[in-house]
Design brief:
Blueprint: H1 8-21, E1 25-28, E2 43-46, E3 53-57, E4 62-66, H2 71-80, E5 83-84, H3 98-104, H4 111-114, E6 121-127, E7 133-137, H5 149-152, E8 162-169, E9 171-172, E10 176-183, H6 186-196, E11 203-209, E12 212-219, H7 221-231, E13 234-236, H8 239-245, E14 258-262, E15 275-279, E16 284-288, H9 293-302, E17 306-309, H10 322-335
Parallel strand pairs: 1-2
Antiparallel strand pairs: 3-4, 4-8, 5-9, 6-7, 6-8, 10-12, 10-13, 11-12, 14-16, 14-17, 15-16
Pfam families: FAD_binding_4
Protein name: Glycolate oxidase subunit GlcE
Keywords: FAD, Flavoprotein, Oxidoreductase
Length: 350
């Protein structure tokens, strides 16, 4: 039996009721990314009844689905057609939804080579803070004058509006995929990655953990095999990348708070207390540490990066520079003037 269901009318009614009553709404799908951002105290608006793939044409490489559709259903449909979501979005829970994927804007190990969630957004339908269901973008790549509202929704954590439908560009799965483990220390791994980054190697994931560098090679058979001969190492089960993406590795367990550090790719080693895992070829570092939030943030800011707490209560959002905050406030004012959607989730003043 199909679970597809268009619930946009009920969602629109709930938003208009909140607008009329001057109350706020906490948008949620399965809650798999609930640990991110600040807690929101408001009436829950659950997107999960609004689900189903609306259209999917593998020859056009475009999929459109409702926001409450489970990510696993979308990935299964793509897999059947030999295609994929190139940015490998993490689920972080069994029932992660498409809307949550866009709102959180998180990408997996392929991100530096394939792009982010935002890069694959073609169009959206959004219920705005004016109580209107509007369509932004389309099903083809277009340059739009002014704000590209669809792409603004990526990583907005529901603060700008309620996503009801998403159109995505998808890509064929690579013909060949091979994962390798190369024993080496962190310093050597970062140096090697910096050098390989200048060369035409078919790397699509690179992670250093413990005493080894883990690589994934993807592409045509010839390029993957010649890269394998050049790099050496031992073959690795490709499930390693799923475990990394979904934070199932032993590294992510344990009581110390988890931090995601986003840093310039060539910033070298970070001297921070705790245990580190390097992902994205050096641009993303995971840190398990009991260090004070401000000292972690200061150390990462010194190299031009920023830190996000993945453990609820570990730290609130860092303050934004005043100029950036003005942009955020102006956008919020345009799209959600009454502040009905997820107030305070991203920043206390939004």
């Amino acid at each position: 039996m199909s679970m597809d269901h268009d619930d946009s009318q009920a969602l629109l009614e709930q938003v208009n009721q909140a607008l009329n009553q001057g109350t706020a709404l906490r948008i949620q799908g399965s809650g798999s990314k609930a640990m991110l951002g600040n807690p929101v105290v408001a009436e829950v608006l659950d997107t999960r009844r609004h689900r189903g793939i609306v259209s999917y044409d593998p020859t056009e490489l475009v999929l459109t689905a409702r926001a409450g559709t489970p990510l696993r259903e979308i990935e299964a449909a793509l897999h059947q057609a030999g295609q994929m979501l190139p940015c490998e979005p993490p689920h972080l829970g069994p029932d992660a939804t498409l809307g949550g994927m866009v709102a959180a804007g998180l990408s997996g190990p392929r991100r530096p080579w394939a792009g982010s969630v935002r890069d694959y957004l073609l169009g959206t339908r959004v219920i705005t803070g004016h109580g209107k269901l509007l369509r932004f973008g389309g099903e083809v790549m277009k340059n739009v004058a002014g704000y590209d509202v669809s792409r603004l929704m990526a990583g907005s954590f529901g603060c700008l509006g309620l996503l009801t439908e998403v159109s995505l560009k998808v890509l064929p799965r690579p013909r060949q995929c091979l994962s390798l483990r190369l024993p080496m220390g962190r310093h050597e791994a970062l140096a090697e990655l910096a050098e390989w980054g200048q060369q035409p190697l078919p790397i699509s994931a690179a992670c250093h953990h413990g005493d080894a560098l883990y690589l994934r090679l993807e592409g045509g058979e010839g390029s993957v095999q010649s890269a394998r001969l050049r790099l050496g190492g031992e073959a690795l089960d490709s499930r390693f990348w799923n475990d990394l993406r979904e934070q199932r590795m032993a590294f992510f367990n344990g009581p110390a708070p988890l931090w995601r550090l986003s840093v310039p790719i060539a910033c070298g080693e970070l001297a921070l207390p705790g245990e580190q895992l390097i992902d994205w070829g050096g641009a993303q570092r995971w840190l398990k540490s009991d260090a004070e939030a401000h000292s972690i943030r200061e150390a990462v800011a010194r190299v031009g990066g920023h830190a996000t707490a993945y453990t609820p209560g570990a730290a609130s959002s860092p303050p934004l520079p005043a100029a950036l905050m003005r942009y955020h406030q102006a956008l919020k004012q345009q799209l959600d003037p009454q502040g009905v959607f997820n107030p305070g989730r991203l920043y206390p003043d939004l």
